[in-house]
Design brief:
O-antigen translocase; cell membrane; mainly alpha; WzxE; transmembrane; 15 helices
Length: about 425
């Protein structure tokens, strides 16, 4: 299946997830204003962080090795049994830690210990979220994009209904609670859809420790956790810095533009993850790899450029539609953010080569380096340019990251 057809199916699933996210932002903007949107960003960063850690950060590894072992039933069974065991252990560990520290986390992130109950719900939900991530990774590894899109669309519809109901009842607290519960309810859709697939076997739900496969998963886990762990932590630090320097209302403007950016980029990053990661993992020929990368740039770079231009042209209307008229000050922040978005997609295409080929040490070092450089740039640029300096920092950091990924790709392909 080529990138265009894959993009069609992933686009449907992504559109549904995007709509669910936008409904959450709109409801929070109504009930809590810019300050509430800023706190929503903090909670979503925590959810992203715990969701990855709970499953052991092995989703990308499952996608990679399912794509490689799909024609080897014995190794595939060993891999998936080990993956489920790994995810189960990690979920129990992280859920326990979150339960113990729930009050402190609520005070640190949301500034109110009354949200500790919400953190406890999120901690208990880790097992369900990890199982959902495992199922989606297996389906993705088999490149079953139709089934993946069905799960995403149906799960997102369930989430939207719950979001509207709980937000009307409990306002900001209800919206945050719905974000957690809707993730677990995806199981009601994902499990039956997976059972009906031609490649499902009951052995895929067996938990078993396998030393060899666990080591393979752990190697990938280090890369995935570093890429998933650092951005939420850095964004939390950025929000705290902006709140201290400019106030939570200004953080809400920064968060609003960042969420618009994340929303439209979700289509492209999902296509890269679903289409290119399994294909790059299963491809070892230099000519074939070059062809995959060229195809990615041929379709994705023009797409992100057109989307960024459209968002910039419609920024005033989008801000009023997605938020409220109180967010008008956010319109001045779009320009450098959208330039950074184009650079982000250009660098992501090449960075997936490091994931697919398990360049663990290089990948982890680069993630740490560029997370630190982004934070440093935010501190420096906001001191000179004000709030918009955070957007300048985003664009400059991805320009540096693009240069780095070009060097890595040239070195790897030149060595084949």
């Amino acid at each position: 299946m080529n990138i265009v057809r894959t993009g069609f199916y992933t686009g449907m699933g992504t559109a549904a997830r995007l709509l669910a996210g936008l409904v959450a932002i709109k409801l929070v903007a109504w009930f809590a204003g810019p300050e509430g949107v800023g706190r929503l960003g903090q909670f979503m960063s925590l959810m992203s962080l715990l969701a990855v850690l709970a499953g052991g950060g092995i989703s990308a590894a499952v996608v990679k090795y399912v794509a490689e072992y799909r024609d080897d039933p014995q190794r595939l069974s060993r891999l998936l049994s080990a993956a489920l065991w790994y995810a189960f252990c990690a979920s129990c560990l992280m859920g326990g830690v979150a339960l113990l520290l729930s009050r402190w986390i609520a005070l640190w992130l949301l500034g109110d210990p009354q949200y500790a109950g919400l953190i406890r719900v999120l901690a208990i939900a880790q097992l369900g979220i990890a199982l959902v991530n495992y199922i989606l990774a297996v389906v993705n590894g088999f490149m079953d994009v139709r089934r993946l899109a069905f799960i995403q669309v149906t799960g997102s519809v369930v989430g939207i209904v719950m979001m509207v109901w709980l937000a009307r009842w409990l306002h900001l607290y209800g919206a945050l609670l719905a974000l957690v519960l809707s993730q677990v309810l995806w199981l009601a859709v994902a499990l039956p859809a997976w059972w009906r697939s031609s490649y499902f076997h009951r052995s895929m739900l067996r938990l078993r420790h396998d030393r060899e496969m666990t080591l393979r998963l752990a190697t990938f886990s280090v890369m995935t956790i570093s890429s998933a762990l650092l951005p939420p932590l850095v964004n939390i630090a950025v929000r705290d810095h902006l709140a201290l320097r400019f106030g939570w209302e200004q953080v809400g403007y920064w968060q609003a533009v960042s969420k618009v950016s994340d929303a439209y980029l979700l289509f492209l990053t999902t296509a890269i993850n679903i289409h290119y990661l399994p294909r790059l993992a299963a491809t070892h020929d230099r000519t074939a790899l070059l062809q995959e990368l060229r195809q990615a740039y041929r379709y994705l770079l023009p797409a992100v450029a057109v989307l960024a231009a459209a968002v910039y042209a419609c920024r005033g209307w989008l801000t009023r539609l997605l938020f409220t008229p109180d967010f008008a000050s956010a319109n001045a922040l779009y320009g450098p953010q959208l330039v950074g978005d184009v650079l982000k997609i250009a660098s992501f295409i090449l960075s997936y080569l490091m994931l697919a080929k398990a360049m663990t040490r290089l990948f982890v070092v680069s993630e740490c380096l560029f997370a630190a450089s982004y934070l440093a740039l935010v501190y420096g640029f906001t001191a000179h340019f004000g709030l918009v300096g955070a957007m300048y920092a985003f664009a400059v950091n991805y320009l540096l990251y693009l240069a780095f990924t070009v060097l890595v790709a040239r070195r790897y392909l030149g060595g084949l």
